[in-house]
Amino acid sequence: NDKILELKNVVYSFRTYGGEVKAVRDVSFEVRKGEILGIVGESGCGKSVTAQCIMRLNPEPPGFFEGGEIFFNGKDILKMNKKELRNIRGRDIGFVFQDPMTSLNPTMRIGKQIEEVFLGRTDISKSEVKEKALEIMKLVGISDVEKRYRQYPHELSGGMKQRVMIAIALVSRPSLVICDEPTTSLDVTIEAQILDLLLELREKLGTSIIMITHDLGVIARMCDRVIVMYGGKVVEKGTVSEIFYNTAHPYTKGLMQSIAKLDTQKGEKLKPIEGTPPDLFFPPKGCPFAARCEYAMDVCKDNPPLEYQVCKEHVTSCWLQHEYAPDTDIKKQGAV
Ligand code: SF4
Ligand code: MG
């Protein structure tokens, strides 16, 4: 069994004063050993909430699971008690966020912050921690480690801070690291360096990585497989080459055309197709993309599309592939 993580029909919502927000709606996918899996979509599509669900990072309440299972190495995370969850977080699953400043302590030297994580472990003695901290700083490509060790977060550049965060995430050599837009706040050159570092670490340590991004360029550069999310659902998933060169879902097609067309500015919100994503207080009954889809048919409005297996490593949820589909242009273009 090469699956390290498997989400099955996960439904996650938030109770708010305005009602229930259906953030994650029936999401299923797996992460395999040593792979980099991308999750791509516009902001609000549910990609970050999905990632947070895996580690139960959202406060519950207001967040709650309406259904589903999340197996990590065969054990359902949703059935774990607080202690088991704490053990998994940080030890077996690491997390790297977009903004390292929210996770680093501004009043504490870098070296001490890394050491603290080591000290939480029983197999490492106090006298060893400094050596261990310097070692992991080198592993993530920090040069001049003795100097960096003594510095405070504000003395480091954004890219260097993100290296420190990656070091912290890697302290216990987790088998899975979840990265949520880890390079979105960095400039292009530094972004490339951080992405290369993650690729190198996967190579060296065999770590599985979930890479959450709104940037298809990041997916192309990094990932083995990709999940495309829209309106809290997975609309298409497959290998990167299938998704890029044999795109089946109209939403994914829109994303592809948008990178071909516009020179996306960094940090800009991905909004490739006219219209706005669905209101997740009142999610559409049928296909989440129906209101913006140029191929929408009668069947789409009220019926959630079934999964269609394009090929062994490619699944899409769209009625176009089914018997209801009229002979549309997208079919003639050979996309379906
Ligand atoms: Fe468009 Fe219908 Fe396919 Fe949804 S199911 S993407 S509305 S064609
Ligand atoms: Mg996000």
TrEMBL record:
Q: Which organism is it from?
A: Sellimonas caecigallum
Q: Does the keyword tRNA-binding apply?
A: no
Recorded hits in SMART domains, A to Z, give: AAA (SM00382)
Q: Which family does it belong to?
A: Belongs to the ABC transporter superfamily.
Example GO molecular function: ATP binding
Where does the record place it? Answer: Cell membrane
Instruction: Kindly state which keywords UniProt assigns to this record, in alphabetical order.
Output: ATP-binding, Cell membrane, Membrane, Nucleotide-binding, Transport
The record's annotation in InterPro entries points to: AAA+_ATPase, ABC_Ni/Peptide_Import, ABC_transporter-like_ATP-bd, ABC_transporter-like_CS, Oligopep_ABC_C, P-loop_NTPase
Name the record gives this protein: ABC transporter ATP-binding protein
Matches recorded under Pfam families: ABC_tran, oligo_HPY
**Membrane topology category:** Peripheral membrane protein
Q: Which intervals hold domain ABC transporter?
A: 5-256
SUPFAM superfamilies associated with the record: P-loop containing nucleoside triphosphate hydrolases
